[in-house]
What does this fold into?
Amino acid sequence: MPLNIPDPTFERVVIVGGGFAGLTLARQLVDTQYQVVLLDKNNYHQFQPLFYQVAMAGLEPSSIVFPFRKVFQKSENVLFRVAEVTEILTDENALITDKGRMKYNHLVICVGADTNYYGNQKVAEFAIPMKSVAEALFLRNAILDDYEKALLCSDESERESLMDIVIVGGGPTGVEVAGALAEMRENVMPKEYKELNYKGIDIYLIQSGDMLLKGMSDNAGIQSEKFLKKMGVIIQKNSLVTDYDGETVTLKDNTNQTVSTIRSKKVIWAAGIIGNALNGMPKTAYGAGRRLKTNELHQVEGFNNIYALGDIALLNEGKFDKGHPQVAQVAIQMAANLAKNFKNRLKNKPETAFAYRDLGSMATVGRHKAVVDLSFWKFQGVFAWFVWLFVHLFALIGLKNKVFVFINWLWSYMTYDQALRLIIRPRVKKRAV
Ligand SMILES: Cc1cc2nc3c(=O)[nH]c(=O)nc-3n(C[C@H](O)[C@H](O)[C@H](O)COP(=O)(O)OP(=O)(O)OC[C@H]3O[C@@H](n4cnc5c(N)ncnc54)[C@H](O)[C@@H]3O)c2cc1C
It folds into this structure.
């Protein structure tokens, strides 16, 4: 099956992956003298920072994804194909996808990263990741399913293991999930699962280091821990998960090497990511975290027409000598810089080296509880929470999504509830090819 891309009159830029980096680049190359081909394995862009709200039944998936075709409705020079890139043929300036192969003049790799289980196959088999909207939905179903099962379960210890939840990783995602679950226990369970001993639901947050929100300020880490403890989350720091068999989590304490266990049917894995490797790229091009090493013009080491942006890119620049944080702002700024350079090439203007402008970071724990680190000001609490809401609403793509999310948040704010606790299981039906 061919990709059916018309022969270009201009140079062809193929962008693999329509996340924050790929989508920003493609949008900024609209109406330029390039043929831009955007390839993604899904037909929609996903807003990862709000995955946890889908998992916690706070938002519907449709509010945080956006179809690529709608973005490029009016652009003549940007083509989109749903295709998964499986191999790059660097010698031929070509790539292979599950739908066919194509040539490129410039290839921009924006494939992001996937969940890192650090080689632990058993954990990979049983823990629940949250790196796609499909996984967030799976988690939502698993949580709601287990509460339903708990209602029918006569064995007390089994019932507890259906209700208790272990979250691994004390970064922004782990903290946000733990806070949202604690709020669900407080506000929703008494109304909808009153037959369960919901007060006995244990929510564990496991962190390998001695501070939550590593990468943010100490203040943010300390304050988020205080918030979570107040909400009844059990925080185990300096602990490593060494095993999980779907029933029992085994942990090792980093400080005194003692081993302990927690019984739980659900382990949410938010403990790290690893770059999505593409066959055909030389092993030497990859650095720490399986990220592609680039220079400040985003060119992958050893190539002058292959670029990498966002989570998959590893660039040693300024104070970021081990690469930039894998966050949306980095992906967006890298893409904007490369777009500018592509445009400069057309005008024979010099290209600009990338320099990251750190706009700050933030995480929310729950209602009126968030932490914000700006370079000139670090603050926590109610104002931080409103800032978090505003920034995330503003960053969402599509007016309809912004309106839907705003209404949802307003409704939850007023009612202390999110009425979306539906267990929707996809039905698989064969179709003629
Ligand atoms: C749960 C969660 C919460 C987060 N919260 C925040 C936050 O609050 N703030 C923040 O700044 N950052 C946050 N991040 C990080 C942020 O989302 C990433 O840094 C950002 O998405 C990286 O953008 P990217 O374009 O590099 O990759 P991605 O956004 O991951 O996009 C990669 C794209 O490539 C596609 N793709 C992958 N492989 C292939 C292939 N072989 N062929 C075709 N297509 C492919 C994927 O479908 C995807 O569309 C969060 C991440 C997660 C998972």
